Amino acid sequence: MTKKLYFDAPLETEFTAEVIEIQRDERGFGVILSETLFYPTGGGQSHDTGTIGSARVVDVIIEDEIIIHILDKEIEVGNYPAKIDWDRRFANMQHHSGQHIFSAVFWKELGLETISSHISGETPTTIDFNKEMLSDKEITLVEKAANKLVFENRAMKAYFVENKDSVPFRRPPKVDGKIRVIEIEAYDYSACGGTHCPRTGMVGMLKIVRTERINQKTRIHFVAGWQALAYFDETQKAAQESAQFLAIGIDALKKTVENQHVQLKSAQSELKKLREMKLEIEAQKMAQLAEAVGEKWLATALFENRNAGELRLLAMKLRAYPGMVAVLASFDGSKLSLVTACADDTDINANDFLQKHLLPLEGRGGGDKSIAQGGGVSDEDSLKDLFTKTKSYL
Ligand SMILES: [Zn+2]
After folding, report:
1. How far apart are CA 387 and CA 264, in angstroms?
2. Mean pLDDT lowest for which of 20-24, 41-45, 109-113, 381-385?
3. Sign of CA pseudo-dihedral 129, 133, 138, 143
4. How far is the CA of 233 from the centre of ligand 1 (A)?
């Protein structure tokens, strides 16, 4: 059994590591110490990193109360100066303590039980609660209650008890025997083996940044302490830069964005109407210039790089003219796009016409008797007689 120094000294970072055993397996080179400050992954909190001698501690695992430190290189049995990475540990401590605080206030204020949690100092920490939805009002309520506990700077005590019935646990532990209690002074009691801040003030600001519904639960994502500052900084910068871009103050940002969104929607709808009108006029002109071929009229046009959707719309408009057969093409330098459309009173099937006569070699296309489109690889030379051929097929 490895003695867990982090239980009583969560703020200590340096100690002398006495390597008493070495273990090599698929997880790498591991060492077992007589006692350690390194926290092993468990209870929703991830492990510490740091150094033992000149080796980096890359993972810390606990098995049957024995803590195994996985190193990036081999060392021998003996004594070494050891140090844990404080920034990572402290971020984990702030979030772990924050989890206790949130779990406590969700229970006290809303009667919601914590189902599970995932503690991370790098990405928002998550807690799942047994309710499908949380209102904005509920979120505000628990955020205030949680930060109140922080500002009151209550002690977060860690101690062992022999009898679990002697403690008013929020969720009584399932195991018997010696139990480690984490107490938010006179407010909340839970069984936990993690590392916590000794006072709630050390946790810093607590902020829920997102909630999501997962089956019958709600998952909250929250940030604490340094990560809360980083989140505030990032959010403020985004708001500030957006406001600067619009040459307004941050306080006018929401209203301005809403207004601009409405204006954009209206401009887009206006633009759509104008494009439609433009196509209408274009179709009218093309119909006037259409060539008489027997009983039919043939309208052709070759565009450079014209959008296929627009080509299709134009062809649709052209086929409204009696006797009209329209063949519209667009060439982008290597690929030819084609649309054929035939008025209802012609005996030509647009799809057959396209497939049999017009598509380039190995080109593909499809459609029905009214309109068809397709294309394929082509070159300038084959484009030259495209419409001459078209006319001869009619
Ligand atoms: Zn804990």
Report:
1. 41
2. 381-385
3. positive
4. 28
Closest CA to 297 of 325, 333, 275: 325
For residue 246, the one-letter residue type is L
Q: Find the 162 Cα to ligand 1 centroid distance in Å.
A: 18
Ligand 1 centroid–CA 177 distance in Å is 18
Please report which helix (H) or strand (E) contains residue 228, including its range.
helix 225-245
User: Tokens standing for 192?
Assistant: 């936990």
Q: Separation of 92 CA from ligand 1 center, angstroms?
A: 10
Retrieve residue 201's tokens: 């003030």
Q: From the CA of 10, how far away is ligand 1's center (Å)?
A: 12
Q: Is residue 31 exposed (0-12), middle (13-18) or buried (19+ Cβ within 10 Å)?
A: buried
Q: How far apart are CA 43 and CA 137, in angstroms?
A: 30
Ligand 1 centroid to 329 CA: how many Å? 69
CA of 96 to the centre of ligand 1 (A): 6
Sign of the four-CA dihedral 274, 281, 327, 313: positive
Tokens of 20: 């008493």
Ligand 1 centre to CA of 47 (Å) is 13
Asked if 318 and 326 touch (Cβ cutoff 8 Å), the reply is: yes
pTM attached to this predicted model: 0.77
Which conformational region is residue 171 in: left (phi greater than 0), alpha (psi within -120 to 50 degrees), or beta?
beta
In this predicted model, what pLDDT tens digit does every residue of 237-251 receive, in sequence order?
A: 999 999 999 999 999
> In degrees rounded to 5, what are phi and psi of residue 229?
-65, -45
Over range 189-214, report the average pLDDT: 96
Domains of the chain and CATH, by start: 3-84 (2.40.30.130), 90-240 (3.30.980.10), 280-393 (3.10.310.40)
* Mean pLDDT computed over 268-290: 94
